[in-house]
Amino acid sequence: MRHITTERIGGIEPMLEKIRALDGLTEKGPGRFYRKSQAFLHFHEHGDDIFADVRLQPGPFERVRVTTKAEQRALVSRIRRCLGET
Questions:
Q1: What are the beta bridge partners of residue 61?
Q2: What is the pTM of this model?
Q3: DSSP single-letter state for residue 66
C-alpha cells in the first residue's frame, strides 16, 4: 500500500472539497490534513481501492476504505461528527 498518487487523488476531489470546507482542519498538501498540530487525515491506494488513514479519536490512525461514493460520504459524516459539526 502506498500514499495516493497525484493522478488518483483527482478521483476523490468531490470528497476533498467537502473536507476542505470543514472548520478545524488545515490541508498541508494535497489530501494531507492536520487538526491543530497533529496529522489527522491522509490517503493511500492499493490496486483499485483508495483508503483513508484518519484519526477520529486520540491514538493511532484508523484505516477506512473510501473507494465508493457511499464510503466517501460515510467518512465525511464521521469527520463532521468528530469535529462537532452536524
A1: none
A2: 0.92
A3: -
Report the alpha-carbon distance of residue 24 to residue 40 in Å, rounded.
Answer: 10
DSSP for 16-60? HHHHHTSTTEEEEETTEEEETTEEEEEEEEETTEEEEEE-SSSSS
Nearest to 24 by CA among 75, 86, 85: 85
> Domain boundaries in the chain?
2-82
- CA–CA distances in Å: residue 56 to residues 16, 84, 86: 17, 11, 15
Going from the first residue of the chain to its last (86 residues), give the mean pLDDT of each consecutive group of 10, the final group possibly shorter: 90 96 95 95 96 94 97 97 83
The total of other beta-carbon atoms located within 10 Å of residue 59's CB is 7
Closest CA to 15 of 74, 86, 83, 82: 74
